[in-house]
Amino acid sequence: MARRYFIAGNWKMNKTAAEAKALIEGIKALEGSQTQVDVAVCTPFTALDAASKALAGSTIKLGAENLYPKASGAYTGEISPDMLKEFDCAYVILGHSERREYFKESDEFINEKVRFALENGLKPILCVGETLAQREGGQTIEVVSSQTKKGLASISADSAKNVVIAYEPVWAIGTGKTATPAMAQEVHAQIRKILSELFGADTAENMQILYGGSMKPENADELLKEKDIDGGLIGGAALKAESFVSLIKSAICAASR
Ligand code: PEP
User: Fold this and answer.
1) If pLDDT is split at 50, 70 and 90, which confidence band does 107 have?
2) How far apart (Å, rounded) are the C-alpha atoms in residues 167 and 96?
3) 236 touches ligand 1 (CB under 6 Å)
4) pLDDT of residue 88 exceeding 90
5) Alpha carbon distance 160, 24 (integer Å)
6) Minimum CA distance residue for ligand 1 atom 1
7) Does pLDDT of 159 surpass 90?
8) Residues 230 and 3: beta-carbon distance below 8 Å
9) CA angle centred on 194, ends 190 and 200, rounded to 5°
10) Which of 96, 98, 130, 226 is catalytic?
11) pLDDT at residue 1 above 70?
12) Exactly one of 31, 65, 98, 168 is catalytic; which is it?
């Protein structure tokens, strides 16, 4: 399989700069130089400087949790791609369900951000996923398909190679409830089908699709066995070195199968 596994931490609004440094030192000490799988930590903006310095010399990449789709200007409180790149950010999480819900981000706005991130050399981790009501209403495939298509509108196949998709069922995020491997695989396969329609089979086969939603050491091995699950976007379990490293080890194990 050409695709590499990818374990990305989404720290959300957690960790000061000092705490970020300590957590990264902990991760690095245990698994900071492996090269079998891709690893990134996406930290709050205020921790990027400390995180970037702490990551020096490791194979772990840095990511941010958001950006604003303008180069500069009167956008109080927002942050531009150049500001993120100053700290060597490689990735940026876009369209997370918390931003869709609490900050009313639309698919169109998220698409604007995805395109701007790509134009500026950042790799978007585009999050899609259904709510509990949508799953119970039988709308999962429709919702996820629509979010994927709208999030990726007007993107070329060449640029799409730099996009990572994260399927995160909203009802599984931070709740301890996880989609079963079969439930997740069904949606991942549908996402890959859409990627294939949009960008061609070759590109779709090479794009990473992560699962997110209470992924933890206890359930990672089973999820990562599924054909279209290429890793995880990890919230809670990314906040402790031991659990995050255990997930990296699960991905290394899956990669060697
Ligand atoms: C997330 O918010 O991206 C996430 C997957 O969180 P958790 O792992 O805590 O469910």
Assistant:
1) very high
2) 10
3) yes
4) yes
5) 29
6) 235
7) yes
8) yes
9) 130
10) 96
11) no
12) 168
Q: 184: closest CA among 201, 166, 197, 203?
A: 166
Residues 6+ apart with CB under 8 A from 224: 5, 231, 232, 250, 251, 253, 254
Q: What is the mean pLDDT of residues 153-173?
A: 97
State in Å: Cα 97 to ligand 1 middle. 10
pLDDT at 67 over 90: yes
CA 230-233-52 angle, 5° bins: 110
The Cα–Cα gap between 160 and 208 comes to 11
Token readout for 16 is 């000061």
Residue 240's alpha-carbon distances to 10, 83, 188, in angstroms, are 12, 27, 27
Query: Which of ligand 1's atoms lies nearest the C-alpha of 172?
Result: 10
- Does residue 228 contact residue 188 with C-beta atoms inside 8 Å? yes
179 lines ligand 1 (CB under 6 A): no
* Residue 63 in contact with ligand 1 by CB distance below 6 A: no
Ligand 1 center to 169 CA (angstroms): 10
What are phi and psi for residue 93, nearest 5 degrees? Answer: -80, 130
Architecture (CATH level 2) of domain 6-95+113-238: Alpha-Beta Barrel (3.20)
Average confidence score pLDDT of the chain: 97
| Ligand 1: centre distance to CA 213 (Å) | 5
What is the whole-number distance in angstroms between the Cα of residue 136 and the centre of ligand 1?
21
